[in-house]
Each structure stands twice: as structure tokens, then as C-alpha cells.
């Protein structure tokens, strides 16, 4: 590992504030992620950036309720509350996130007919986000993930990242999950796919021992 990237996944108001799709404890991640970003030579953040009529929203399905299972594009789909609509406060980064450390921002979820959990592709692998090309151009050889939510966007991103490099690290205490049940299943899957699960302290030690220097001075 010579040039790792930190992917800061969906640290947005829509996943923190009660009015949209709050992930329990999501607001607790600002401080740890702010401390992690200066350690990495490459830092990229992602945003859900949905149209107001996105097909994953329960409001698009007659009689549906939030968090029910439905269908989108012929595939099973969790029907989410309306969240992270492009250009609204819900889509903005959470206040306090040190956006000055971000070197690129990747937006996803624009196609109303398919959901986009992964930071690399939509759920049908039909539309790439451009992240893979950016990381390749930057010479990235290892990927670390932090953010929301551990059991959806972080999980799907880690899966797709395996197409890019075998060195994938999910920073568990810099993530939060939608629910304990799906979090447990996500963790088991990551372990089965040899995705490394680390704590923040482990990350600091690993980067230090590898001689990695961040793009910004450490605080």
C-alpha cells in the first residue's frame, strides 16, 4: 500500500436529520471522519443526489409505507422515505464536515429507475459513477471506507471496490448502520469476501507503519 484513498460515504443531512432518512448515530461521525481525512493522500466524498420522483421513494408506490419491500426495475427494492433530493438541504453535507479536505465529490442516484447504493455503480451496474476512473488516475492502490450506511452504501461500495483492488478496509467505528440485523449480515459478508474491518486506531497505526503521508498536515 503506497497511495490509499479514503471514501467518505454520504455524510448528508438527509441521513442525519429526523425529517428524512435518519441513520441512528449518523451525526456522531463528523468528528472521527474529520480526524481521518488529513491522514490520507486521496480523499473523496459521495452524495446521494436524487430527483424528487426517484423510484426508490415509497411515495412513488401506491399504498406503500416507508421501509417496506417493493420492486424497482423488476428487482426487490427497499422503499425509502424521500431523502437527499438534489439541490435541497437534505442533499447537503452535514454542517461541520471539513469539506476543505475533499479532493473530489461523486454524486450518485440520479437515475429515477434504479437505486444507487454503491459509490461505483448503480444497483444494476448500468451507470458507473466515474469514481473508478478518478481513483485509477490518482494511482490509488488501497481503499478505506467510512460513513453511511454500513449495511447499504458502505457494503455495496466495498463489494464493488474489490473489482479495483484487493486492499479494501472498512473503518467500523467511522460508520453507522440502518439496523442491527442488516449490519450483522453486512459484516458477515465483508468477512467472507476478505474485506478488512478496522477501527480508527488500527487505521492510524497502519498508515504510520506504512509511511503514508496525508495531503494535509495532521492535526
Structure description:
This protein has 5 helices and 8 strands. Helices cover 22% and strands 21% of the residues. The two termini are 23 Å apart. The chain has one domain: Isochorismatase-like (Rossmann fold), CATH 3.40.50.850. Helix 3 packs parallel to helix 4. The model has no long low-confidence stretch (mean pLDDT 95).
What keywords describe this structure?
219 residues, alpha/beta, Rossmann fold, 6-stranded parallel β-sheet, two-stranded antiparallel sheet, 5 helices
Describe the main β-sheet briefly. 6 strands, parallel
Number of helices: 5
Strand order of the largest sheet: 5-2-1-6-7-8
Poorly predicted runs are none
CATH topology: Rossmann fold
Question: How much helix, percentage-wise, in residues?
Answer: 10-25%
Task: Work out the count of structural domains.
Answer: 1
Q: What does the average pLDDT come to?
A: 95
Backbone CA Rg? 17 Å
- CATH architecture descriptor text: 3-Layer(aba) Sandwich
Write down the overall geometry: globular
Please provide the count of β strands. 8
CATH superfamily: Isochorismatase-like
Quaternary structure classification: single chain
* SSE run: EHEEEEHEHEHEH
Distance between the termini: 23 Å
> Which percent band covers the strand fraction?
15-25%
Structural class, from helix and strand content?
A: alpha/beta
The CATH class assignment is: Alpha Beta
